[in-house]
Amino acid sequence: MQLISDIFESLMFAEPLMQLISVGYLALFVICAIMMMTQNRALHRVAQIVLAVCLVLVAIKIGDRWIEAGRPPFKTFYEATLYILFTSSIVAFVMDVKFRVRALTFLLSGGFLFTIGYILSHRDLDIVKVAPALQTWIFIPHVSAYILSYGTMLVAFFAAVMTLIKPSGGKGNFYVGDTDYIDFEDMTYQVVKFGFLCQTTALLLGAWWGQVAWQNYWGWDPKENWALISWCIFIVYLHMRQMKKFNARQLSMTVITGFTAILFTYVGMQYLPTADQSLHVYTTEEDGVEDAEEPEVQESSGDAAETHNHENHNHEDGEHHDHDHE
Strand, helix or coil at 265? Predict the structure, then answer.
């Protein structure tokens, strides 16, 4: 109850555009719920329109944040999650138009509503500056590819859940589509293929970026490692599917496991004991942890003064020779 109260309070003090976005996704969920209960095809069309409007509003919000911050809006946890909401909504809209699986759209509308609540509970108002290492053309495609893969795999997760419920697919009806037959496992595969392509692109761009900026393709950073783990899980899934000896439930469980790894990479890794060693923890208003992509080490004035005094003391004792040349 406290969390719901905090989300509601955050919504009340949010800017009008964010309030409108929140109301839009709430309306989408309510419309989809009524659509599922009444089997009203007209409401499905209304839901598509509302989702399209929400997409436009989120795009405006991202653009507004970009202008306000003077940089791509990927730096904080709030900004990145808002971008994930945008990308997953795009994939959901395309899926709804192509497959018309209304049950999937309903599940996704619930996922979007949960994401909105998470965004409101982690809303950052401060504009965080970008480190010099981030000021490169690779920053935008690298982060965009990762966030697009996250949004796509979110859709794949819900598609895999539907496959678990009905692994053999079935005849088309109001809930699962207007076609004669719908194969949920194949639908999941189509989504995963695109998400994996984005994930691979992001992984390669990140390695290239590391070499350009820090002369190191791979730093074995905790978040880098978990990103690699999630990527490997989806490689396993793609190989399993080609082997033909695994059934739909097993394939779906692999997709769900892969998305769980992605979720942990994005949200849960900050709770690991090794999180403070990572350069990939998003800045939040609450903890002030530096963003993922900012390999920046800042020395406090107190530490600097202590170091300076220590050097002077060693110099006076004849134990330290200063090698600086001014």
Answer: helix
| 39: region left, alpha or beta (phi > 0 left; psi from -120 to 50 alpha) | left
Calpha distance 167→28 (Å, rounded) = 27
Mean pLDDT of the chain: 82
CB 211 within 8 A of CB 165: no
Which pair of structure tokens corresponds to residue 101? 């699986």
Spatial separation of the C-alpha atoms in residues 48 and 29, rounded to whole Å: 11
- The DSSP secondary-structure symbol of 133 reads G
Q: In the numeric block, which tokens belong to residue 114? A: 């949960």
Instruction: Give the CA distances from residue 57 to residues 22, 53, 85, 105, in Å, rounded to whole numbers and listed in that order.
Output: 10, 6, 11, 19
Burial group, residue 120, by CB count within 10 angstroms (0-12, 13-18, 19+): buried
The whole-number average pLDDT for the span 158-175 is 86
Positive or negative, the CA dihedral 86, 98, 109, 238 is negative
pLDDT of residue 230: 95
Cβ neighbours of residue 293 closer than 8 Å, sequence gap 6 or more:
74, 75, 131, 133, 134, 139, 142, 143, 279, 280
Residues 6+ apart with CB under 8 A from 198: 145, 146, 148, 149, 152
- Where helices occur in 133-221 by DSSP H, the ranges are 139-165, 184-214
What tokens were used for 144? 């965009």
Classify strands 170-173 and 177-182 as parallel, antiparallel or unpaired.
Answer: antiparallel
DSSP run (H or E) holding 106: helix 102-121
pLDDT per position as a tens digit, 203-215? 999 888 888 877 8
The CA–CA distances, whole Å, from 150 to 50, 89, 180 equal 23, 11, 31
285 neighbors 125 (Cβ within 8 angstroms): yes
265 vs 229: CA distance, rounded Å:
9
The token duo for 233 is: 């899980």
pTM, to two decimals: 0.79
The structural domains of the chain, with segments of one domain joined by +, span: 2-316
Q: Which two tokens stand for residue 202?
A: 């992001």
